[in-house]
């Protein structure tokens, strides 16, 4: 019996088709994986099911009856629960209070009673929680258990889990999988969103793969392999920008040695990263986002101090240095989120001057003529569609990215760190940005490209490194890289022939 | 049937300066109810509020006197808010400046104005800086919310004033708790003889001009605006956000301190309890109404001077309570803030 059937679901955001005629179904008592890269449309599909989005086309059946789900309330009433990556718990309240929140009857609540009923539910579903603990004091894994129990407490028969393991440490992942297996035996059905192949192969019965908003196929675990799934997940079309054959790479310009970063809560985000970037090469760090790239980018930008390790740029130690010092040492930086690189309320000209502000000051007073001329030059050179006085916030994503790049590239940096430089850009802007990066490489700068777009990585790089859970899985010349190989590495399936250490 | 939906869409730039004007009109419509309540003719009331103060020289000068401290507290608040530092403590910083002025003014006995005037200004400024320092350091070093700390500092200084005036600084010849008069040389000179309009008015205008220049034309101002509107991006771009906020907070406190020294050296000539009478809090309204722009702050301060003078005129002419003016002021703030928020949205009709 099908507990959920989604037929022909289409969802558009403006011109973007996030879901293109997708069919998806869920049988009673199965764990069904929804596999795909970031932006493949997994979360959109599930948000549609949970009533957070309404589909432009398509129909949803629950227990083989057609339903209209227009809000999460409808979804909950139909026995659907969702556990997202960002928890929706009220931190000053206790576990029990959070679980009954919104599901209480009458005006008054009896703390002892709700605590008792939550403890009962905890036993029944075998999800250990302490009903009287205050949520603020819980670990991430415990919060997730509370979220799951909250859904089950509200009679959920179907549980949607959006990348539940992304925030967990390995021991917590094991515990989660054990709970899920038990719950499925009790009759729960689970939709498991993930991009990690080994997890999917470990606990899911069927696997549906989405790519670029389209349904690629649904397969049974027994009839597939990680290799096949990787291929389905990252299959590529051909690439636009043409790369000239690489010259021999020059001498090393940036060396990262044994870089580690441990978050305050003890989560190791970067584990022993070592990389050497040479002059005149593009070294890509491929990987699904959330595997430590943000921390690496922040450390290289001067926004985060590493726990251990050393970074040397052209003979200057820039470990833990300030953004200004790193900039002065010759690093051109493009942040992961372009809106975190420019100030929307300031003008294009002011933003372009901000990074090297001392050059535009005359005894502390802004040299407005110089700032405007500088802006005009860059606007022309980088074809930014704006005037110097326009506030940057009014510009399109592509033009904002051009402002960010123009600012750092105009200083002729020795080394360029470009993080997700084309994310969310249209085709024209994407090609422009890629062309600029190649230009910089041909000029002799070292380019460190951090990207989750395999097209981009395969099309631009001289060498490719793959990052997974804060570790560099492998580094290879671009000529040896294939989509399949990268896909397997990105999904955490080790290439055992090349990594004898495991 | 068509439905309406609210969606986020910022209004064009020219709307912003028009808001305070529109707010005045809307406020007067709303306050009609209260004016009708006290059984007076609304048109007469508005006449005395807005027009009558311009009909006599005395009340016009009084308008400028009332606006003088508001130039400074408004400037102090606008300057801090521009950097995203929500200084609610202009009230306390003003009082600190007043204490400093009242002390120095007595010490300067027998001096000449050429020496006393600059010293009084510097001393008042430093008093404000000092009082702003604790919350600023707590904010920058430990991330403590400045709204809470600056506000609490306001209450603390009320008791310090009370201690000084009932203890060590109490003027033995006076019946009221007040400090001895400051030296003749330390008093701000009058701009118009036999009026209350003093040098503080010019000081206020100069300060507004200086902070306008600082905000819009200096490198520090650019960093400050960057830190205020997107701290993360400012940090990425190499702005030392902590130092920028610290400097802004201290300068803001200093400007509020100038307002305090102006009240002591220009109006009262000694320290009294309740010297500020909410000038610091009114500064927040003035800064908001002036859209944090020094020119706007100047206009808003004059407008408040007008309303305050007007509310006195109204009560005298029509026999209504002075509180009516305060009702209008408060309504004006709410309407203005509401309108600023509403400009970010629009109603969209759905077929």
Describe the structure.
Chain A has 16 helices and 22 strands. Chain A has about 500 residues and is an alpha/beta fold. Chain A folds into three domains: about 230 residues, Rossmann fold (3-Layer(aba) Sandwich); about 180 residues, P-loop containing nucleotide triphosphate hydrolases (Rossmann fold); about 70 residues, no CATH class. In chain A, strands 6-7-8-3-9-10 form a six-stranded mixed β-sheet, with helices on both faces. A six-stranded mixed β-sheet of chain A has the order 16-19-20-13-21-22, with helices on both faces. With about 350 residues, chain B is mainly alpha-helical. Chain B has a domain of about 230 residues. In chain B, about 70% of the residues lie in helices and about 5% in strands. Chain B is built from 13 helices and two strands, in the order βαααααααααααααβ. Chain B has a two-stranded antiparallel sheet. In chain B, helix 3 packs parallel to helix 7. The longest helix of chain B has 30 residues. The mean pLDDT of chain B is about 90. At the A-B interface, helix 10, helix 11 and strand 18 of A face helix 8 and helix 9 of B.
């Amino acid at each position: 019996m099908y507990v959920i059937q989604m037929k022909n679901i289409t969802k558009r955001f403006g011109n973007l088709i996030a879901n293109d005629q997708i069919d998806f179904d869920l049988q009673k008592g199965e764990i069904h994986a929804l596999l795909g890269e970031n932006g493949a449309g997994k979360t959109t599909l599930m948000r549609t099911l949970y009533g957070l989005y309404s589909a432009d086309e398509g129909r949803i059946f629950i227990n083989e009856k057609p339903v209209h789900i227009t809000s999460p309330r409808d979804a909950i009433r139909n026995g659907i629960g969702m556990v997202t990556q960002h928890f929706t718990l009220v931190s000053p309240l206790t576990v029990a209070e959070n679980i009954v929140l919104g599901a209480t009857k009458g005006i008054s609540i009896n703390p002892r009673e709700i605590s008792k009923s939550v403890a009962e539910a905890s036993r029944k579903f075998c999800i250990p929680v302490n009903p009287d603990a205050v949520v603020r004091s819980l670990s991430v894994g415990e919060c997730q258990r509370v979220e799951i129990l909250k859904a089950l407490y509200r009679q959920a028969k179907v549980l949607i889990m959006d990348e539940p393991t992304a925030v967990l440490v390995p021991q917590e992942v094991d515990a989660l999988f054990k709970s899920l297996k038990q719950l499925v035996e009790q009759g729960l059905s689970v939709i498991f969103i993930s991009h990690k192949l080994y997890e999917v192969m470990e606990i899911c019965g069927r696997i549906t793969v989405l790519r670029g908003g389209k349904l690629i196929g649904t397969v049974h675990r027994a009839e597939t392999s990680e290799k096949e799934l990787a291929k389905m997940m990252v299959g590529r079309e051909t690439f636009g920008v043409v790369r000239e054959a690489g010259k021999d790479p020059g001498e090393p310009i940036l060396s990262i040695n044994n870089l580690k970063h441990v978050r305050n809560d003890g989560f190791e985000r970067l584990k022993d990263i070592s990389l050497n970037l040479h002059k005149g090469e593009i070294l890509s760090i491929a990987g699904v986002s959330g595997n430590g790239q943000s921390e690496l980018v922040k450390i290289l930008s001067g926004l985060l101090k590493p726990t251990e390790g050393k970074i040397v740029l052209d003979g200057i130690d820039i470990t833990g240095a300030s953004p200004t010092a790193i900039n002065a040492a010759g690093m051109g930086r493009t942040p992961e989120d372009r809106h975190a690189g420019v100030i929307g309320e300031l003008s294009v000209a002011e933003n372009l001057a901000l990074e090297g502000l001392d050059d535009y000051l005359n005894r502390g007073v802004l040299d407005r003529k110089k700032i405007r001329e500088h802006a005009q030059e860059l606007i022309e050179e980088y074809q930014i569609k704006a005037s110097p006085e326009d506030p940057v916030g009014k510009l399109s994503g592509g033009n904002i990215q051009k402002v960010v790049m123009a600012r750092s590239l105009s200083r002729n940096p020795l080394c360029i760190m470009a993080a997700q430089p084309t994310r969310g850009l249209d085709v024209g802007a994407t090609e422009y940005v890629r062309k600029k990066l190649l230009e910089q490489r041909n000029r002799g700068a070292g380019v460190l490209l951090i990207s989750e777009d395999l097209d981009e990585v395969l099309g631009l790089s001289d060498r490719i490194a793959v990052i997974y859970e804060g570790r560099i899985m492998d580094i290879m010349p671009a000529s040896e890289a294939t989509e399949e190989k990268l896909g397997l590495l990105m999904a955490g399936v080790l290439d055992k022939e090349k990594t004898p250490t495991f | 049937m068509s439905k309406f939906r609210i969606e986020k869409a910022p209004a064009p730039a020219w709307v912003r300066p028009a808001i305070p004007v529109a707010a005045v009109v809307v406020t007067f419509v709303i306050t009609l109810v209260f004016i009708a309540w006290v059984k007076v003719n609304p048109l007469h009331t508005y006449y005395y509020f807005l027009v009558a103060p311009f009909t006599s020289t005395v009340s016009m000068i009084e308008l400028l006197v009332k606006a003088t401290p508001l130039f400074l507290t408004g400037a102090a608040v606008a300057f801090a808010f521009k950097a995203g530092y929500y200084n609610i403590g202009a009230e306390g910083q003003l009082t600190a400046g007043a204490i400093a002025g009242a002390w120095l003014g007595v010490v300067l006995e027998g001096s000449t104005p050429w020496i006393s005037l600059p010293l009084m200004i510097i001393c008042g400024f430093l008093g404000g800086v000092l009082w702003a320092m604790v919350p600023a350091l707590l904010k920058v070093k430990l991330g403590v919310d400045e709204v809470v700390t600056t506000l609490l500092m306001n209450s603390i200084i009320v008791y310090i004033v009370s201690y000084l005036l009932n203890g060590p600084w109490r003027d033995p010849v006076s019946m009221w708790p007040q400090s001895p008069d400051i030296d003749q040389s330390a008093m701000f000179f009058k701009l118009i003889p036999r009026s209350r309009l003093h040098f503080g008015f010019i000081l206020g205008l100069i300060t507004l001009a200086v902070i306008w220049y600082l905000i819009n034309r200096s490198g520090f101002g650019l960093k400050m605006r960057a830190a205020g509107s997107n701290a993360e991006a400012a940090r990425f771009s190499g702005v030392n956000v902590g130092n920028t906020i610290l400097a802004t907070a201290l300068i803001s406190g200093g400007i509020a301190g100038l307002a305090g020294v102006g009240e002591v050296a220009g109006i009262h000539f000694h320290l009294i309890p309740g010297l500020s009478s909410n000038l610091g809090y009114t500064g927040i309204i003035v800064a908001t109404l002036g859209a944090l722009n020094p020119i706007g702050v100047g206009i808003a301060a004059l407008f408040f001077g007008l309303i305050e003078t007007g509310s006195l005129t109204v009560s005298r002419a029509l026999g209504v309570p002075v509180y009516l003016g305060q009702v209008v002021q408060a309504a004006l703030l709410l309407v203005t803030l509401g309108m600023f928020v509403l400009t970010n949205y629009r109603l969209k009709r759905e077929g």
